[in-house]
């Protein structure tokens, strides 16, 4: 290898290591995943510092063409990263499935509770029963004049102040449903 290529590989490896550290610092890459990338970068940097190491490893392993050993190590590194990613995606799929089930259960519970409350007390904008339509008699729990009525912001007159009497069965306010 020429010295120009060795220095180029060193600079690229150092720049990539700084890029990975920057991504971890900005929370764009997890610390666990960054360790694999930093280990790969350090291996490339180490091989760039010691170019004779590749020749020695190739001779020891019986590889006739030294660049083939580098390609094999690179492919092995990529396979390890891909396996980790596939494992992580599988875990995320399972978590997503569990969360979707919990959300569906909670949504059903909210709908059930809304149905219970709709029959028990009207919500804002819905028709509220007046005296004679299932509301308590005027002497029990009817709102007095000036108190908030079941409809938003309206003041409810008590039975003696302009409202129909309890026995008349007055219609709902404004025809709201």
TrEMBL record:
Q: Where are the transmembrane segments?
A: 6-22, 34-53, 65-83
Q: Which organism is it from?
A: Heliobacterium modesticaldum (strain ATCC 51547 / Ice1)
**Name of the protein in its database record:** DUF2304 domain-containing protein
Source superkingdom: Bacteria
The record ties this protein, via InterPro entries, to:
DUF2304
Q: Which controlled-vocabulary keywords does the entry list?
A: Membrane, Transmembrane, Transmembrane helix
Any Pfam family hit: DUF2304
Q: Could you tell me which residues belong to the region Disordered?
A: 156-177
């Amino acid at each position: 290898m020429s010295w120009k290529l060795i220095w180029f590989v060193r600079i690229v490896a150092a720049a990539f290591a700084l890029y990975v550290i920057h991504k971890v610092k900005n929370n764009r890459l997890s610390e666990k995943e960054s360790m694999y990338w930093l280990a790969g970068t350090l291996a490339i940097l180490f091989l760039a510092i010691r170019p004779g190491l590749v020749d020695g490893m190739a001779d020891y392993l019986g590889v006739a063409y030294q660049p083939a050993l580098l390609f094999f190590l690179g492919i092995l590194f990529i396979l390890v990263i891909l396996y980790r990613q596939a494992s992580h995606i599988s875990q995320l799929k399972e978590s997503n499935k569990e969360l979707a089930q919990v959300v569906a259960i909670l949504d059903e519970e909210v709908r059930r509770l809304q149905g219970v409350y709709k029959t028990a007390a009207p919500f804002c904008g819905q028709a509220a029963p007046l005296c004679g339509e299932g509301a308590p008699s005027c002497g029990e729990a009817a709102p007095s004049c000036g108190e908030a009525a079941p409809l938003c912001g309206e003041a409810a007159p008590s039975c003696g102040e302009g409202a129909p009497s309890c026995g008349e069965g007055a219609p709902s306010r404004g025809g709201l449903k």
